[in-house]
Write a structure and sequence with these properties.
This protein is an alpha/beta fold and 333 residues long. 47% of the residues lie in helices and 19% in strands. The strands form two sheets. Strands 1, 2, 3, 4, 7, 8, 9 and 10 form an eight-stranded mixed beta sheet that branches.
């Protein structure tokens, strides 16, 4: 992290918690990695509106979009150090601090968005977030980008199409393992650098939900989109435990409940916009590939070793809890 940014943020935290004139109003800085024209940012604005209204101005929120104050991983480190109060971060970028959180990035884990919501908003979701407390972070709500799709400068219809291809990945080992299982070469690239990497041919493809492909304009530099729905990309609304433990119980409740409420609002924005997003990509000339049941099954078979890898690496407890809850919700055994 830029040392000057760290100094400014740390000073801001001291100021907001009683180190200067701002002590009359708690200042909360929220960082995220999406552009201002995104459902994530709209959700962040909703959270600010709820918090400032319900605290009658006692809490004031400043939002930093587009990794303005650091990458996703850097923002997690800032939360851990108490230099940032709140962050909206994808699970894959939390993985370097608490690896077990990346369980949600396992491919073909959830059969639908509705099932994903019921599982992560319940007991299993609490188990996923629990390890964060040991690193001075409180995870309080799951937001989303939606289900990930494959994009490339080559058509993707079966796992073999990935053989020998360089594919951008987030810094989560489980995603690296996924593309290794397909025969690709995973290449970690920062989110902010991805457009240029695709444009310049540094990598041949990437994975992201429709919302992200639109807001980051990746469709301008990719020829093909495969509607794979292969993994749910969850964001977690995080607080620095240092900060959250210092505010009053009443303010804490408002901050947390508003994060959950704004998360439901953001989820709806994503779901409502996906047809429009797809139409935009098609209009731009992207060729859309819809997998047959047989093709999708081939990807599921190829990805199956990733679950075994995760269980051996991090244990089966959280994964088993999720799969048990999925079975309960779907009625499958």
């Amino acid at each position: 992290m830029n040392p000057i940014v760290r100094l400014v943020l740390t000073f801001g935290l001291m100021w907001s918690l009683g180190g200067g004139p701002a002590s009359a109003a708690v200042i909360v800085k929220l960082g995220h990695d999406q552009p201002e024209k995104s459902p994530h940012h709209e959700g962040a604005l909703k959270w600010r509106e709820l918090v400032e209204s319900r605290t009658k101005g006692q809490v004031q929120v400043k939002i930093f979009a587009s990794q303005l104050i650091g990458t996703g991983t850097e923002m997690v480190e800032m939360l851990q150090a108490g230099a940032l109060e709140a962050g909206l971060i994808p699970t894959a970028k939390i993985a370097p601090i608490t690896p077990s959180v990346q369980v949600l990035d396992i491919p073909f884990l959830f059969p639908s968005r509705d099932v994903a919501y019921k599982v992560i908003d319940g007991r299993a979701g609490n188990e996923i977030l629990k390890p964060l407390r040991s690193v001075n972070i409180e995870g309080v709500a799951f937001w989303e980008s939606g289900f990930k799709q494959f994009t490339g400068n080559f058509p993707i219809r079966e796992p073999q199409d990935y053989k020998g291809r360089k594919i951008r990945v987030m810094p989560a080992p489980v995603i690296v393992e996924q593309f290794k299982a397909f025969g690709a070469t995973p290449v970690p690239i920062d989110f902010k650098e991805l457009y240029n990497a695709l444009q310049q041919g540094v990598v041949d493809g990437q994975e992201n939900p429709l919302a992200t492909n639109i807001t980051m304009r990746f469709y301008e530099v990719q020829k093909y989109l495969t509607l794979s729905d292969h993994a749910f990309l969850a964001y977690v609304f995080l607080f620095s435990k240092t900060f959250l433990d210092k505010v009053s119980p009443e303010v804490r409740t408002i901050l947390v409940e508003a994060a959950k409420e704004a998360g439901r609002y953001e989820r709806q924005l994503i779901a409502d916009s996906e047809k429009e997003y797809l139409a935009t990509m098609q209009k731009a000339g992207v060729e859309v590939i819809r997998l047959t049941p047989e093709q999708r099954a081939a990807f599921e078979r190829a990805a199956k070793p990733v679950q075994d890898w995760y269980a051996q690496k991090y244990g089966r407890e959280v994964l088993d809890a999720i799969q048990k809850d999925i079975a309960a919700v779907t009625g499958r055994k």
